[in-house]
Amino acid sequence: MSRRTGQNGHIEKSGRWFVVRYWKDIPGQDRRLHVRERICPISGHGLLSKSERKRKAREIIQASGADSAEYFKEVVKQDTGVTFREQSKIWLAQLQSRKRKPIRESYAVTIQGALDKWILPAIGNIPLANVDNLSVKP
């Protein structure tokens, strides 16, 4: 989520209008829409300066809610999925059965020991999607 917050959008000319373009998540889909909304006319009554256009663009994006954490959690499927503990078992089994340079049983026992003693008690039950720098630091 941290890389999706704080959109400023991209201001461009479209016909006789300045528009702001930004990304918006669509419920139930992996792809996002590149949305366009009008800011002000290019000339005449209602024309805004460059700094005013930037401010209004940020207001439009905030009003749409496209960059809020609540909207992200609502729209993007938050699948808890597999835990770190389950994935570590799968990973260790794949290390032993891969074709190119598989690890030996004695080394797998050493890795499993380190996992059991240090890593799994701290972060073993956390969903794999939620394991990040903040959860690993302690």
The proportion of residues in beta strands is 15-25%
Number of helices: 5
Structural class: alpha+beta
State the share of residues found in helices, binned by percent: 40-55%
How many strands, which pairing sense, and closed or not: the largest β-sheet?
Answer: 3 strands, antiparallel
Which residues sit in consecutive blocks of at least 5 with pLDDT less than 50? none
Q: How many strand segments?
A: 3
Overall mean pLDDT stands at 86
What is the CA–CA distance across the termini? 21 Å
**N-to-C series of helices and strands:** EEEHHHHH
- Estimate the global geometry from the Cα principal axes: elongated
* Main β-sheet, spatial strand arrangement: 1-2-3
Write up this protein.
With about 140 residues, the chain is of the alpha+beta class. The protein has five helices and three strands, in the order βββααααα. The chain has helices at about 50-65, 70-75, 85-95, 105-125, 135, and strands spanning about 10-15, 15-25, 30-40. The chain has a three-stranded antiparallel sheet. A hairpin with a 6-residue loop joins β2 and β3 (about 30-40). α3 (about 85-95) packs antiparallel against α4. The mean pLDDT is about 85.
